[in-house]
Amino acid sequence: MKEIQLQIRNNIDVRLANAVTRVERTHQIIKDQFNAAITFNSSALEEKFQARLEGSQEATTLKLHMLKHELSDLTIAALENNNQMEDRVLQAQRNAAITSNASALEEKLYNHLQISQDDTTVKLNKLEQELRDLKEAAQDSNIQIAKLVEQLTYAKKNIQDPRTSTLEKSLYSSRQCCPTCTGNSEVSLKKTSPKPEAVVDSAAVFSNSTSSPESAEIVTLKAPQMIKNHPKTITLISWQVLHLK
After folding, report:
1. How many whole angstroms separate alpha carbon 190 and alpha carbon 202?
2. SS3 59
3. CA distance 233 to 131
4. C-alpha to C-alpha distance for 17 and 167, rounded to whole angstroms
5. Is 203 exposed, middle or buried (0-12, 13-18, 19+ CB in 10 A)?
6. H or E element: which one contains 191?
7. DSSP character for 214?
8. In this structure, how many other beta carbons lie within 10 angstroms of the beta carbon of residue 188?
9. How far is 149 from 139, CA to CA, in rounded Å?
10. Can you say whether the dihedral through the CA atoms of 142, 146, 151, 155 is positive or negative?
11. Is the alpha carbon torsion for 222, 228, 232, 236 positive or negative?
12. What CA–CA distance (Å, rounded) separates 97 from 103?
């Protein structure tokens, strides 16, 4: 019995040992296969990763180039925008300066126009005053002229007719004062002069058909002249009546 049990135990031990050996071998095979698979997969993964990495690098390089171009474009655009902003700032400064200068010029022009208007107003006031003075002077002159006309008219009315006295009647009876008279000669009046040949002052010249100073009409004024060799000089009060040829 003991021998059978021992033999069974030995058989079991042998079988267990064989099983363990087979298991170990199988495990080693599986391990080797797994390692081989891992190595293969690792190589494949490494190649795949390397390919992807290279593709990614190329894509990254391409993207970097594209980004560089975009960055260049953005830099150029930024510079252009900066230049435009500077131009706008300069234009705004110019506009502000122009506006300021325009305001200053407008104020200066307004002040100048105000001063000019004030001067013009003063001058117009002076001219109006001078015009009023001239009108007043003209009125005074008209009054004086009217007075002189009135005095002349009064004097003409108050001149004595030479034919009222006996001597003058005899002289005017024939409407002649000398043999050469025609009765329609010019008569001139002047102040009494000590000599008949003295220079005659400017006097009124009368056109007189009746030889009457009272009804004589003033025609013109004669310049001073020398009276020589006149046929007759008649003295009346303080005047001389000279019959001129």
Report:
1. 8
2. helix
3. 52
4. 213
5. middle
6. strand 186-191
7. T
8. 21
9. 15
10. positive
11. positive
12. 10
Indicate whether this model's pTM tops 0.90: no
**Separation CA 188–CA 241 (nearest Å):** 6
State the distance between the two ends of the chain, measured CA to CA, in whole angstroms.
221
Closest CA to 235 of 170, 157, 168, 164: 168
Q: Are 213 and 190 in contact (CB under 8 A)?
A: no
Q: What span, in angstroms and rounded, lies between the C-alpha atoms of 240 and 234?
A: 6
List all residues 6 or more positions away from 199 whose beta carbon is below 8 Å from its beta carbon.
224, 225, 226
227, 242 Cβ separation under 8 angstroms: yes
* Mean per-residue pLDDT of the chain: 69
Q: Write out pLDDT tens, residues 113-146.
A: 888 888 888 898 999 899 888 888 888 888 888 8
Helices (H) then strands (E): counts for the chain: 2, 7
Q: What's the rounded Cα separation, in Å, for the pair 152 and 157?
A: 8
* pLDDT band for position 45 (cuts 50, 70, 90): confident
Q: State the amino acid at position 115 in one-letter form.
A: I
